[in-house]
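Hi everyone, sorry if this is the wrong subforum. Our group has a chain we'd like a structural model of before ordering constructs, and none of us has done structure prediction before. Sequence below.
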Amino acid sequence: MTKRKGRHLAMARRKPLPPFGAEYLKRHPHPAIKVALGARAWSFARRAGVGRVMILPDDGAPAAFRWPSNGHPALVYELGPPDDNRLAAMARELLAAGSPSVVAIRYSLLNTSDCRLFFERADHVA
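Answer:
Right subforum, don't worry. Here is the predicted structure as tokens:
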């Protein structure tokens, strides 16, 4: 392991888990990561059950948290008005944390699936 990579891993361990992150890891020790963000993320997570999805708080930056991907794919639920920059930042952070791919599902305020977006790490593209 290079010194640079070692420093990056040490810094990542110091970051806090996102809301419901500890409960999520207890429930799914080797999970495909599930993250909710947007105006209705908290109510979505409560309905799903504590520990079934982690939350990116409205006032939090994706880089402020440790996303325990364990090399598994990630699923992001965007709940509320679309925010391309925030969604792209979340996808970048999950990919940097080791997820090989990120699927984002956007839900409008009418609670219907508007579109699905797919992000993939460059080193996984053939």
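For your construct planning: The longest helix spans residues 84-96. The CA atoms of residues 100 and 122 lie 9 Å apart.
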